[in-house]
Amino acid sequence: MISTKKVLISIIIFNFYTFAQSGGPDGELSASLRYLSQRYTMPTAQTKGILNDIGTEELAHLEMVGAIVYQLTRDLDSKIVKESGFGDYFINHSTGVYPANSNGSPFNAFCLAVSGDPITDLNEDLAAEQKARATYDNILRLSDDPDVNDVIKFLRAREVVHYQRFGEALRLLEEDLRPKKTGVGMKDCDNK
Question: Which coenzymes or cofactors are required (predicted)?
Fold first, then answer.
């Protein structure tokens, strides 16, 4: 439970960054849907399993981010809402946790990168994990709440682990494909 409540402008600014991790293109919702969708075209059980595990964990991260946002905003009074720039969001969602980016744009499936090519998708996943880590780094630069920072540090550490796991998946996949004369994805492309 987030116990230190410094409900002023700094918390609201933090919330905008945290919303980015909820519904932004590099956030937890995008990551979970991306990985759970990409798993179907992974050619090995091991790479499918890695994407399934990480995609499922990202859903848990979404819940953690939502809990932080809710705990920080649930007791806001109208004066703080007006002074903080949180008013437009508040009018539409009150203190509900709505998947939007830090600019207030709602989650959009256009940010999901699913190519159907396992090598391409795994490289996208490596980049996505680094973007998420960088966003958590930025949150830590803004937040002075030790309870919030503990959760964000945990989430940041998990993004690093996910990056390593995707690197492992890419290495395994490249090793598996190396001895074959065919490419990845549509097998008939190499025969033309």
Answer: Ca(2+); Mn(2+)
Question: What is the model's pLDDT at position 182?
Answer: 54
Binding site for Mn(2+), by residue number, is 28, 58, 61, 129, 162
Does position 185 have pLDDT exceeding 70, yes or no? no
Domain with residues 9-178, CATH architecture? Up-down Bundle (1.20)
What is the per-residue pLDDT for 73?
Answer: 76
Rounded CA separation 52/49 (Å): 5
**Could you tell me which residues are annotated as the binding site for Ca(2+)?**
53
**Sequence spans of domains, the chain:** 9-178
pLDDT level of residue 146 (50, 70, 90 thresholds): confident
Q: Which residues are annotated as a binding site?
A: 28, 53, 58, 61, 129, 162
pLDDT(5) > 60: no
